[in-house]
Specification:
Two copies of one chain form a homodimer. The first copy, chain A, is α/β, with parallel strands linked by helices. Helix content of chain A is about 30%, strand content about 20%. Chain A has a nine-stranded mixed beta sheet, with helices on both faces. The longest helix of chain A is centred in the C-terminal third of the chain and has 18 residues. Chain A starts with a strand and ends in a 7-residue tail after the last helix. At the A-B interface, strand 1 and helix 8 of A face strand 1 and helix 8 of B.
């Protein structure tokens, strides 16, 4: 691991690293915020998965999350959204290829060689984090848009690994919306049966149990409801006896201004299920 | 005025506008955050002056200030740092020309035609804001780095116009540090006597009265103490019987991570002198 930068914020440290990933077979970058409590003891980790076009830096600089991580005493880990660099395949559009990994393991050429973000997020990155930083193996998971899709489908398939799941404006049924159909066709192929393993609305209808789940959606979001259909997820969950908190917000859009407005609520939600209390 | 964007954040509205400025004789851009209280009544305005290379967007997206503006019920106005565009002169370096207006009225060619940021900030912009938005004529002023210099020298010269002054890592004695010497030589000419009107440490030693003044400085700031010498300002102020709060912070650098960590403190400071109380 190579440290790229280190900045003090809210009495903790926001650090960026790059490392050679065995999973994606590329160099990968991530950010970690270590709250002040981590100077004295191990703290749980809340992973944030970002949306299309983002790197780790969007959430790190725009969400205002560090102050709440500091108040509750949890670390934030913010991965990149795809493999990068000239070795990894790419596409000219913003919603496929670099910056658009969709948190899955691609099976199709030219993507399958490097686009293995599911395994990277679920296996390699937590191992790296837990081996190198003052953190416990308690994990929780949230994300935005494509990263909300990542948080939901990863969390649902790994109920014992993540204390809770939450999402801002998530893609919940990628098999049935334009972003998901384009990405899944490319990464997973035309056989839609293979898509179900990464479709949160299908997964939640089959799970015997799930963690607490929270979703916030802005009603002035340009992508709602064409790409973002949280009601579909909630209906599938409720039909299977799984409870979901869905809050809709008049006037809020898809931007980080929306995320910033509700990030305290999400961090408090995860902190509760990680057994943490706000330290005033 | 043309509205460029409008985003809901913390129950208020963050809006960007461009307008043709009679002062700079260019198009100018600014952002305004109207807190939820502005829907019902006029609110005071806190102006933020940004540092070298910034536009209005750095503070707007990275400082996390809107939540505190909403808590206290004040509007934020964030101007650009210089005239822009092909009509305005420029320089290849980051610390002169576009993005580096230094909040003064240039007297030298090629700058004097458009670089009149002092008059823009003190006269034209407040007139525009007070004529077009639900705000009172109560003003307060803060800034970062070059914008800290702007806040101090503008505030000191206009004690009846701004309730308080505060700064993150300000340039306080531009006549004696590299950034200031370069900019003042270009904008104001080689005669250093003309520089004193924009040198906060000289101004504060001559003022009969001053508003409450707060300065925060990170001790891990790469530009401290070569470019940033808050102690010089405090000594000049104290020798003249003017009180300054100067807080130094171990580990903090020059970035917006530093600003975000202390922005609540600054907004609370201005709110107090604007007669506002936090609305929980």
């Amino acid at each position: 691991m190579e440290q790229l930068s280190k900045n003090k914020i809210f009495d903790g440290w926001h650090e960026r690293y790059s490392h050679q990933s065995r999973t994606t077979n590329t160099e990968m970058t991530f950010a970690i915020y270590l709250p002040p409590q981590a100077a004295d003891k191990k703290v749980p980790v809340l992973y944030f998965l970002s949306g299309l076009t983002c790197t780790d830096e969007n959430f790190s600089t725009k969400a205002g999350a560090q102050q709440y991580a500091a108040k509750y005493g949890l670390a934030l880990v913010i991965p990149d959204t795809s493999p990068r660099g000239k070795n990894a395949a790419d596409d000219e559009s913003y919603d496929l290829g670099q910056g658009a990994g969709f948190y899955l393991n691609a099976t199709q050429n030219p993507w399958s060689q490097h686009y293995r973000m599911y395994d990277y997020i679920v296996e390699e990155l937590p191992e790296l984090i837990e081996a190198n930083f003052p953190v416990t193996n308690q994990r929780s998971l949230f994300g935005h848009s494509m990263g909300g899709h990542g948080a939901l489908q990863i969390g649902l398939k790994n109920p014992d690994c993540y204390a809770a799941i939450s999402a801002f404006a998530p893609i919940v049924n990628p098999s049935n919306v334009p972003w998901g159909k384009k990405a899944f066709s490319a990464y997973l192929g035309k056989d839609e049966k293979t898509w179900a393993a990464y479709d949160s609305s299908k997964l939640v209808s089959q799970m015997k149990k799930a963690q607490p789940i929270l979703i916030d959606q802005g009603l002035a979001d340009n992508f709602y409801p064409e790409q973002l259909q949280p009601e579909v997820f909630v209906q599938a969950a409720e039909a299977n006896g799984i409870d979901v908190i869905l809050d809709l917000h008049e006037g809020y859009d898809h931007s980080y201004y929306f995320i910033a407005s509700f990030v305290e609520k999400h961090i408090a939600f995860h902190a509760h299920y990680l057994g943490l209390r706000k330290e005033v």
